[in-house]
Amino acid sequence: MSWRRVPALGLAVAFLLSACGARGDVGAGAVPQVSPPGRPLTYVAVGASESVGLGATDPTRDAWPQVFFRTALPRAATMVDLGIPGATVGDALRYEVPRATPLHPDVVTVWLNVNDLVHGVAPGEYEGQLTALLKDLRSGGRTEVLVANAPPLDHLPRVLQCQPFAPAPEGGCDRSRELPLSVVDAAVSLYNDAIARAAAATGAIVVDLHGWGESVQRSGHLGRFVGSDGWHPSTYGYQQIAAVFAAAYRTGTAGVTP
User: Fold this and answer.
1) pTM for this entry
2) CA–CA dist 255, 240 (Å, integer)
3) How confident is the model at residue 250 (pLDDT cuts 50, 70, 90)?
4) DSSP one-letter code for 152
């Protein structure tokens, strides 16, 4: 193309644009408005170290709430992760719920049981606190709340390594407190009964991490799901946990108009 022809081409383009502008349709046709698909809902994650991704290669990207957010929710959704490493249900009631409720979330996930169990919180006390937490987060039924039950803990490398003592949430073993495997199994069962009752009383959806964890143990590949600390999930484990939450979310919201 000759350089001398460029001005002529520019005039022709200008003429065409001005002609379109005369019809008043240039803006809509040339620069279409594109919005993120789906409902612009707000998602809040309430939990402990698992919710912030301890054990993952890149916690800010691979924590299961992040994976759940990316894979199960509309692109128009926003996310706030309020997880506190080491948090019990009592801690979450004091520090996480007061930050969650003003956000008026549409969806909340809750995974809070392992730290309570390790710290020896009585099942009755745990149930009362969890029921209060779920009730507050449900906001009279406006918010969809998914609450995880306790996965099996008796095959985790750190639990086995620390026997007969309790694992310390910050790492290593807590030799001031005994937690034999028989007590672990019984406590997990009692906690899961408490979680089921608390969910039924508040209308929350139970996410069955215990059933999922049992299937992982039967597979013989537990090591793939556990991080290098022998306690928290691995990156792959977090991906699978996010899928369990996503399946529960889809089932719980089936038939709800987006």
Assistant:
1) 0.82
2) 25
3) very high
4) P
